[in-house]
Structures are given as structure tokens and as C-alpha cells.
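Fold it.
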Amino acid sequence: MFNVKLFAILAEQIGQTEVQLSLTAPITAAAVKAALQEQFPQTAAVLADCLVAINQTFVSEERFAPDEVTEIALIPPVSGG
């Protein structure tokens, strides 16, 4: 199980700032999004625009072995000024 940090509207939709997801190798951004959407279907629209950070680096197509992953975070689009 991996702890996944959630922010902004994504955390609001789920009602938590961190969730546990079961992920199998290789771990990818798409796999993280799919696992979260399976567990929390209401996140589908927001997940489409989220960035995934693994080990504090934004990722897209990179693949990680489970023992390489120390942190996963999902970052939804935000605005500010």
C-alpha cells in the first residue's frame, strides 16, 4: 500500500488529504490515477487534469519499481494571484 497525498479540490472531493492505494509494479502516473478513480469514482473529472508527483518530481510516462517510491502526490490545477 502506498500513501498518496491529495491537495485542493481533490482532497475536498474525497474529504481526506491522504489516502492509501494498492499499486503494483511498475508504478506510473496513469496507474496512480486509475487506482484513485477506482476507489473514488467522483474524482474522474478532476483527475483528468491532475499532475502526479513521485518522489517530489512531476512524472508522466516514467515507470518506478515499488521500492523506488518514497512519496506520491496528486496535484490538481490551481489558480491564484
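The mean pLDDT is 92.
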